TrEMBL record:
Major facilitator superfamily (MFS) profile domain ranges (all copies): 25-422
Protein name per UniProt: MFS transporter
Membrane topology designation: Multi-pass membrane protein
Signal peptide start-end: none
Transmembrane stretches, start-end: 20-38, 58-79, 91-110, 116-140, 152-174, 180-199, 229-249, 269-288, 295-315, 321-342, 354-379, 399-416
Keywords assigned: Cell membrane, Membrane, Transmembrane, Transmembrane helix
CDD domains: MFS
Annotated compartments: Cell membrane
Species of origin: Cellulomonas carbonis T26
InterPro entries: MFS, MFS_dom, MFS_Efflux_Transporters, MFS_trans_sf
Cross-referenced Gene3D superfamilies: MFS general substrate transporter like domains
GO molecular function: transmembrane transporter activity
Gene Ontology CC, one term: plasma membrane
Length: 456
């Protein structure tokens, strides 16, 4: 980098055009990601309608989302490898068309077979979107701004969750299942057209990255990097329980178990998004300013999320509205907290491996969520068989309590991979001082600064 912050080898004129076009490329791709989140979370507000339409139990309903999220998680690494070869534009546009076709199929499905195929298409298209938009951020913006724009991408994308919680729920109940999901398909097609017209894989004048030869070698290199695994576990432990809540079980928990109206539940889910949008820029700035302390942010968020779950589950009877509001706010912070994992992928791997590394990290939260969503459904059915009322608070307590096990595995994963990552950093000449030593040094610097100001 030159002193002015311009990459070496790029003509000044083309750099000016890139700086002007970057917000457009990011903005259009971001709209596509918002639509992807809308597709992803649509079944969460349509869960009760899906039970009636397909005449299924809680376990079968959970498999709809499990299939979708399992496909999403399973395709992250293949999509990352394709991303490093084909570029973001093709993957985002193609993903939007896949999700649109899935929603159109779901609109007319009345049997389980077509419904499962629809969720597979949605999961596959969704798998291509987020990691592709993150690559655009890394390519089009200066490195010092990437953590902030990564957070903003994840947060603005959650507007799709708001669209699912309020407008989609309204259309679903006013116009019916078919009209709602046909409309979803149309929105997906528009997103694909916008990306094809406005998005480009790299700025004008930028050199094309080397195309990887084969698939095994790039994947081995990424998997052999300790920072990749630190990103994987960071993403998993902060995100998975939020995904379980938002994608399927949050709306039934709030309305049936907690006795809240659909309007109150929608407002709480929206509050979850607002909390994420407010916390994200703060986490992004802190990540950029304190890259050696990212794991402490991950662990702090994980502990806060666990305490929020415990507070709601041990409360006798339905929780008061203020506690539910606090609960969804803390869960909301888990979303931007998981984006710290992508920063580990970016800083630990070569730029031409970024798609693959981001895909591996993204597997963390969603693979854990797949197992957790299914476990919650199974425990709910077992609780009902044991005498609990379907989707009651007594049934949800053990079901959500089972999330403690993947949380514990995730925390251990962060601690172990952090030790390995710091060992690799030390071998490269970067030593991370203990937190107590860093805080003592900071206090000492502050005290000396105060002495200088007082003596002056």
């Amino acid at each position: 980098m030159t002193r002015a912050g311009r990459p070496r080898g790029r003509p000044p004129a083309s750099w000016g055009r890139a700086a002007a076009r970057a917000p457009v490329v990011w903005g259009v791709s971001l709209v596509a990601y918002v639509v992807a989140v809308l597709h992803r979370t649509s079944l969460g507000v349509a869960g009760v309608d899906a039970v009636e339409r397909f005449d299924v139990t809680a376990t079968v309903l959970s498999t709809f989302v499990v299939v979708q999220v399992a496909v999403y998680a399973a395709l992250q690494v293949p999509m990352g490898l394709l991303l490093d070869r084909l570029g973001s534009r093709r993957l985002v546009a193609g993903g939007a068309l896949l999700m649109a076709s899935g929603q159109l199929l779901l609109a007319f499905a009345t049997d389980l077979g077509p419904a499962y195929v629809a969720r597979v298409l949605i999961g596959a298209g969704d798998a291509a979107t987020f990691i592709s938009v993150l690559r655009l951020v890394a390519v089009w913006f200066p490195a010092r701004r990437v953590p902030l724009y990564t957070q903003l991408t994840g947060l603005v994308g959650q507007l799709g969750q708001v669209a699912a919680a309020i407008p989609l729920a309204g259309v679903l109940h006013l116009a019916g299942w078919t009209s709602a999901f046909v409309g979803m398909g149309a929105v997906g097609v528009l997103a694909a057209v916008g990306v094809a017209v406005a998005v480009r894989d790299r700025p004008p004048g930028a050199e094309a990255p080397p195309v990887p030869r084969g698939l095994a070698a790039p994947l081995r290199e990424v998997l052999g990097t300790p920072g990749t695994w630190l990103g994987f576990w960071s993403h998993a432990v902060t995100q998975f329980s939020t995904t379980v809540f938002v994608l399927l079980w949050g709306f039934p928990f709030l309305t049936v178990a907690q006795g809240r109206t659909p309007a109150e539940a929608g407002t709480l889910l929206t509050l979850n998004v607002v909390a994420a949008m407010l916390a994200g820029p703060v986490i992004g700035v802190l990540t950029g300013r304190h890259p050696l302390r990212r794991s402490w942010m991950v662990l702090a968020i994980a502990v806060a999320v666990a305490m929020a779950w415990a507070a709601v589950l041990v409360h006798p009877g339905p929780s008061p509205l203020w506690l539910l509001a606090l609960f969804v706010v803390v869960l909301g912070v888990g979303g931007p907290g998981s984006a710290i994992g992508f920063d580990y992928a970016r800083t630990s791997n070569a730029s031409h491996r970024l798609g693959t590394a981001t895909g591996v990290v993204n597997v963390g939260g969603f693979s854990t969520a797949v197992v957790s969503i299914l476990v919650v459904g199974v425990v709910l059915d077992l609780a009902e068989a044991g005498g609990a009322v379907a989707l009651s608070l007594d049934a949800f307590r053990p079901a959500f309590g089972a999330l403690a096990l993947p949380w514990l595995v995730g925390v251990v994963g962060v601690l172990v991979s952090r030790r390995r990552t710091r060992r690799a950093m030390a071998a490269a000449g970067v030593v991370v001082p203990p937190l107590r030593e860093a805080l003592a040094r900071r206090r000492g610097t502050g005290a000396r600064s105060g002495l200088r100001r007082s003596s002056g």
